[in-house]
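Q: My collaborator sent me two sequences in one message, no labels, and asked for predicted structures for both. Can we handle them in order? The first one she listed is below.
A: Yes, handling them in the order given. First sequence, followed by its structure tokens:
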Amino acid sequence: MSSVLPSLDHIGSVALLGTLVVAESVWLSENSAARGHRFPNVLGALLAVIPIGALAYLVAYRPEHPRMRPASPAERVALTVFFAAVGSFAAVGLFPASPLGLRELLYPLGLVVLLPLSHLVVYRRGYRVVTSPVSRQVAALRRRRE
């Protein structure tokens, strides 16, 4: 009989996935509020569980609406945790599965190890360096379409 609750073998990946969803929700909510969206909390909650909606937000809504205020501390912390969680999933996903559940122990460890690196990306110029080429490509595609 299966249970709704995860087994102890999968608790690390479930906890990391929960961290990822909460961080994404907070970042989307804070970012959309800074861009003047009327319902930023609803948008953040919905787009955190609908990945294609988050992608549409990043490609369509975000470039069209400039920031009205700088990034808040909560937005930067959420983005830092989000980048570290995604990096942990990617890095630990490269390890082969082990019978002792080594991957499940490595997910939180990967998060802790990648937090300083993602902090440098978000709080230094690295964030602009990472995202500006994507913004330029989206703008070029829009110009070609017009």
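Q: And the one she listed second?
A: Here it is, processed independently of the first:
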Amino acid sequence: MILPPALMLWGLKRVVANEKRHSRSPFSDKLLRPPGESLRIKVTELEDQLNDVLVSLVFTLISPGIFLLVIAKFPLVLVILAMVIASGMGWGFAWKYWKRLLRIRRDLRNYRLGFDGERCVGAELTPLLAKGYSVYHDFVFDMRPGGEASNFNIDHIAIGPEGIFIIETKTKRKSLKPPINELEPQQIAVEGKSRETTTLRFPDGSIDEKPIKQALRQSEQFYRWLKMPTITQAEIRPIVVYPGWWIRSKNWDKLGVQSASKLADRLPALGKGRRLRSDEIKAIAARIEDKCRDIEGAR
């Protein structure tokens, strides 16, 4: 019983060892992180979890039937008693797996949406490269200042003459219900006199003040990480982007909430600090690239 699986495992190890011995990745350097890389990894993990739960759920549902076949020749009273107990336990485990399945499916749906949003914004930022910008994605902070562990990351960073743009992507679904306020179904009203007091109103009546505050915290963390004497916080501009939505705001250039469409055309005008020199841009880009180039090529 044990010998066939052991032989298969040994054979697989031999195949892997042979592949490593006779070939290697064509990439000598690590690869840059693409848009949404952290979300892609999370989606893959959730898909694996979903498959595991589905297998467990199916096995739990069919196990009472298998058990019945095993004990079919026992006395009828024992068979009935055993089936009642087995069915109760089976349905109890099935209910547990069913709830877990729904939770994983909900999380997977949300992470996939976020991944699509970051890919969309990443594509909208690509034209900045022709304007002399450097653009990076999924900048991961593994440690915050002070030594606290964190999975904090910045979705996109664009560096150019007009400044350093710290971009947070927020991908929100649109409701199919009619708006309950004056907004169009695809509109977000951005209101406030400063970034610190910015409020977002949505067609479903919900209000959110967290996104721009999150972007502000990210820009502060990035400034602490960068630690370049010539760079002040005035040159670091936090931006929140909602792909697929229209932004309604009288102070669109001041409050820092944008739609994704043609973002590369508007972004340079959002810089509020002094213009960066070419040597500063290169130095900042080199530091960011060193941190974002961390993906091993496939063997």
